[in-house]
């Protein structure tokens, strides 16, 4: 396993991060899977207070108890469940964020959160108040660092300019190269790490039938998937090729992979040991479909 410093933080994170949202088993099963991941070198675990009404944090907290000094725990805040449980509303307010951290700390059974992330964001938010909330939590020692989870270039720019974020979580894959033009250069310049999610594009790049994805037609998706297959081999299967494409992007610190089974864990882990993509293979993949760009929130 390779490790990278997350932006300008002191957090050394595994190249493969464990996306805990996919966990669906009983706590004991989740713990076994998480412990297997730790044994294989994964040290970065990402959850959110939104997932399963906070129960995802509870399960992750139980699993990581006794391993706290060996792992980096990331969670997210900003989506407020309605009292009737019918859905959630966006709330980036200072008071709300500060109140939420206490509940997350309790559920995760920890005294501090390594990376606290804003779970979204718009230009209409009270951004200075939101930043002030994270800065307050830093001063209180309840969080070590903070970042945002966003695909909006205009929101990312505001936080880069006005805050001390160390990371941005965003979607990135062969079928979603929008960050290459709008975000990666800015983040590299400012030493802010990228946590990449969605590397297999909901499976259409590797094992699901071609279907429209973002601005791509089903035919274009099929071409991208075929390019992945063409650049794969017995030593590096399609999923690992798709993941290598993401991991070899210089801006990416860690690829966050949704894991719910041992087989998925093992497949993700193999991506760090399989042959890297050559310059020629990377070029062939990039030529498979036209590169897409953000059309909104620029």
From TrEMBL:
<dbReference type="Pfam" id="PF00248">
    <property type="entry name" value="Aldo_ket_red"/>
</dbReference>
<dbReference type="GO" id="GO:0016491">
    <property type="term" value="F:oxidoreductase activity"/>
</dbReference>
<feature type="domain" description="NADP-dependent oxidoreductase">
    <location>
        <begin position="15"/>
        <end position="285"/>
    </location>
</feature>
<dbReference type="InterPro" id="IPR020471">
    <property type="entry name" value="AKR"/>
</dbReference>
<dbReference type="InterPro" id="IPR036812">
    <property type="entry name" value="NAD(P)_OxRdtase_dom_sf"/>
</dbReference>
<protein>
    <submittedName>
        <fullName>Aldo/keto reductase</fullName>
    </submittedName>
</protein>
<dbReference type="InterPro" id="IPR023210">
    <property type="entry name" value="NADP_OxRdtase_dom"/>
</dbReference>
<dbReference type="InterPro" id="IPR053135">
    <property type="entry name" value="AKR2_Oxidoreductase"/>
</dbReference>
